[in-house]
Amino acid sequence: MSAETSLDAAFAGNRLLATLSEEERALLGTDIEVVRLGVGDTVLETGSVTKQSLFPFDGLMVSLRRELSGGRSVEVAAIGREGAVGGIISCGAAPAFTQAVVQLPGSAALIPMPALEKAKLESGHIRNLFCRYSDALLAQVMQSVACNAFHPIEARAARWLLHAQDRAASDRLELTQESLAGLLGVQRTTVNAVARVLQEQGLIAYRRGAIQVIDRPGLLRVSCDCYQAIENHFHAVLGPDGRGTAS
């Protein structure tokens, strides 16, 4: 795949970039790079200064994790082709509050922060787009807090798998049970038990470090209403054109 073709794939595959016109795309400059990232690659370290924004596509999903004392960490948000990582909410250089680690492999477009900030100043749509996305991302974080506090682990696991399937655009998720346990902030034995129940119900299949979604409607029934709440808010705030559907 040529550089031009892969760049076209990035603008078509990322839901934020896909809303840009040719003129708005040109405002982002020519220093956009398309990269392929693997599971475990670190995109941002806590406290590091953001130098470029990353726009996932092609199945890439990045986990935003907050590290706690004692060496533990928990996922606070997950970002895939619907969004971007780094420098979207803040204006200009700012330290990262979370660690960003690749959870599902795929590709991303890297846009230098100076080019992104310049484009925000010159385009009302780009400026408004990222403001709206920051609202959608904050909503995901707030819904996750409520979900983690009150909903059972089976519902939380089902919700996470649904979001992951959306972003990967595939039924097969390259994810170990150990990784899922870390993301949900529980012991591996707990996730093993949950995965076994979901598998016995015919909702998923687990084999060789990957989880296969077999019955998505079934997962939706097991999941709490947090999944749909997040999806509904994203659609209301951004929608297909980045302008939202809320009146």
From TrEMBL:
Residue ranges of every copy of the HTH crp-type domain listed in the record: 151-217
Lineage: Bacteria, Pseudomonadati, Pseudomonadota, Alphaproteobacteria, Sphingomonadales
Gene3D superfamilies (alphabetical): Jelly Rolls (2.60.120.10)
Source organism per UniProt: Sphingomonas kaistensis
Keywords, in A-Z order: DNA-binding, Transcription, Transcription regulation
Key word Transcription regulation present: yes
Record-given protein name: CRP-like cAMP-binding protein
Stored Pfam families: HTH_Crp_2
GO cellular component terms, A-Z: cytosol
Top-level taxon of origin: Bacteria
GO terms assigned for molecular function: DNA binding; DNA-binding transcription factor activity
SUPFAM superfamilies to which the protein is assigned, alphabetical: cAMP-binding domain-like, Winged helix' DNA-binding domain
Keyword Methyltransferase found: no
InterPro entries (alphabetical): cNMP-bd_dom_sf (IPR018490), Env_Response_Regulators (IPR050397), HTH_CRP (IPR012318), RmlC-like_jellyroll (IPR014710), WH_DNA-bd_sf (IPR036390)
